[in-house]
Amino acid sequence: MRWLFLAALPLLATGCTAVHDPLLETGSIRPDAPPISTEVSPEFAAAYLPSISGRIESVRQTVRGDFFEQAIVYSNATASAGENVLTVRVGTSSEGVSFLRAPTRRAILAEMRQALPDVAMRINAAAGQNTHGIYGYATGPLGASGSCLYAWQFAKRTAPLSETAMGRLGDGNYSAQVRLRFCHPSMPEERIAALMAGMRLKPVTDQTFDMLRYAGGSGVLRSQPVAVRAEPVAVVDDGEVPRRTPKRRLVEEKRAEEPAVIRNAVRVPLPGEAGQEKVKVAVSEKPVETLEDAQTARAKSALVPMPETAALTTGD
Question: Which of 128, 145, 146 is nearest to 137 (CA)?
Answer without folding.
Answer: 128
